[in-house]
Every structure is written in structure tokens, then in C-alpha cells.
């Protein structure tokens, strides 16, 4: 069976596959939700949700929060990549982009 909360699951989890990049996908959903107050993908059922995920059919975070630095959109986009091979693969890459997003926020607030 499928383990996980569908809104936070990477597309590959639906078919029972999991790898380190799978956790980065969930992080992308959580980060999007923290920044916007909304989940990036909504669906009445798992099939609708999966379709939106595989097509990356979501509004960029800065569309919902115009003051958001573009580097934050880039981080989310790379975390929500449907293909795990194209997704960020390494925690150091994630941390680097997170730090860039934080720095852009800090300089925008000054």
C-alpha cells in the first residue's frame, strides 16, 4: 500500500519508489506552504493531485506573495521537480539555495 500524506508525497511514491530526493520534494511542499499559506497542489483525489504534480501545475509562490525573492521561487521549483533525477539531489545544494532565499529576504526587509 501507499504510505504518506498525498499532498506531501513525491510522484514516485505513488508507485512505491522512494529515494533521498523524495524527501526534498516534501520539503518543497512544506516550504511553499510556509511562504504562501497554501499547498502548491490541490486535488479532489489522488489522481487529480498526481496529474497536477507531474505537470508542475502550481502558481509560483511569488504570484501569491509578490515580495518574495525570485531565488525562493527557484528553490521551490527545483524541489517540486516531478522527475526525482532532475530534482535537487544533495542537502548542500538545498542549504545553499535556502541561504540565498534568506539573504534575499533580509536585504529586501532592510
Describe the structure.
With 110 residues, the chain is mainly α. It is built from 5 helices and no strands. Helix 1 runs antiparallel to helix 4 and helix 4 runs antiparallel to helix 5. The protein is globular, with a radius of gyration of 14 Å. The mean pLDDT is 90.
Question: Which helices and strands, and how do they pair?
Answer:
Layout: H1 20-36, H2 46-54, H3 61-64, H4 70-79, H5 91-109
A few lines on this structure:
The chain is an all-alpha fold.
Total of DSSP H or I helical runs spanning 4+ residues: 5
SS content category: mainly alpha
Q: What is the 3D form?
A: globular
- Would you report the number of β strands? 0
SS strand fraction: under 5%
* Poorly predicted residue ranges: none
Rg value: 14 Å
- Mean of all residue-level pLDDT scores: 90
Largest sheet: none
What is the share of helical residues? 40-55%
Secondary-structure element order, N to C: HHHHH
Termini separation: 50 Å
What attributes does this structure have?
54% helix; 110 residues; single chain; globular; 5 helices
Amino acid at each position: 500500500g501507499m504510505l504518506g500524506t498525498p499532498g506531501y508525497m513525491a510522484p514516485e511514491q505513488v508507485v512505491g519508489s522512494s529515494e533521498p530526493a523524495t524527501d526534498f520534494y516534501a520539503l518543497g511542499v512544506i516550504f511553499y506552504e510556509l511562504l504562501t499559506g497554501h499547498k502548491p497542489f490541490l486535488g479532489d483525489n489522488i489522481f487529480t493531485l498526481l496529474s497536477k504534480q507531474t505537470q508542475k501545475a502550481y502558481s509560483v509562490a511569488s504570484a501569491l506573495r509578490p515580495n518574495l525573492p525570485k531565488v525562493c521561487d527557484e528553490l521551490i521549483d527545483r524541489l517540486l521537480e516531478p522527475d526525482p533525477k532532475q530534482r535537487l539531489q544533495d542537502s548542500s545544494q538545498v542549504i545553499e539555495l535556502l541561504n540565498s532565499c534568506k539573504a534575499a529576504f533580509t536585504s529586501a526587509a532592510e
